[in-house]
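Invent a record, attention on tokens:
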Amino acid sequence: MKRGLRSFLLLLVSFFLVLLVACGDDDVDADPPADTGNGGETAGEDSDDDDESEKEAEVSGDPIKIGILTSQTGILEAYGNQMIKGFEIGLDYATNGTRAVNGRPIELIIRDTQTDPQVAVQQATELYENEEVDILVGAASSGDTLAVLPLAEVYDRIMIVEPAVADAITGSEWNPNIFRTGRNSSQDAVAGAAAIASEGTDIAILAPNYAFGLDGAAAFKEAAEALGANIVLEEFPAPDATDFTASIQRIIDSNPEYLFVIWAGANSPWQALQEMGVKDRGITISTGAPDIAALYTMDDLIGMEGFSVYHYTLPSNPVNDYLVEEHKSRHNGEVPDLFTAGGMASAMAAVEALTKTNGDASADALREAMKGMTFDSPKGPMTFRTEDHQALQTLYAIELQDHPDYDYPLPVLLRELSPEETAPPIRN
């Protein structure tokens, strides 16, 4: 109905325009052309108007709808909100501020999973059915993401996974419409094991009891044992735990040389590890350097060698420079955090893919464009591996140091771990 009415009105307007032009040809005293807003400039001086018309034409196509599905509330809300900020900055960077590709404006629709897989499925279904999104991006929680993955295949839409890390996302639960810009647990494990594992080393693992922690622990165990280490204990407290006493006591009793910690969320175990004197008992703690909020609780770990996915001081490239300055400008001087860079990378991947398809957002077109695609990011070039669409990317070997310009332990670069060096096993 709406299309028919619109077509009729356009036809009617065209008819009257033809009449006006015909009258102008017959009557030499006809009114002059209407003012075009150029202040009386001659025909040769209205190039600015032409440029504006061209810009309007460039973004006059049907919108490309991108749904962002992530935690805006719940225990991972900080990660979700970081990702959203990074995505918005990345979208502007990749499109030179137009938020359009091949004449099609990009429309963002954001939904909160509440860090609850059931809610995530409800929101994803609404984004697909009611909003008719072309691309889905998310989520902060591996549990949320795993629950939503099948919908990308059912509705035949591309899903870009950021920042959930469970191996199963590009492993046992993968489908061809899934592309992940975030790193996975095995990439973390390779980096973490390289920092501490060697022949005969006794290591305990502390990780949360859900997909992120379980997959991470399994991947670390595999990587560490391949280097000859012994895993003497694995502890899996609840993901929303606030009392870690029992788990830490069992770790102390197992008498490892190292404790490798995998954690995400505001309820971190760092304070409990300090209070129970784990380090004083000769157990060296190692982990990935997390978000800035968690770094504030890690004073007792100064001197620790581990790895980092991202800290804004680690990469040295123009994209990261832009992210840092633009984030400060938009967000009251705040610097980007752990998953802001991932959000930017996912936006840049989406724009690169849409550019390659000339704005075709269909799953068929995007799948072919994204297989093996290399795209830029704040961490340098990333590449979607053809076999499982996992983005191969740089990680960082770091040492936590006390730095006079920072009021938290600073991850200081020891060396970059190349995308090839941290490439995880293909598990799909």
In short: Residues 207 and 214 are 7 Å apart (CA to CA). Residues 2-26 form the longest helix (25 residues). The longest strand covers residues 104-112. The chain has 13 helices and 16 strands.
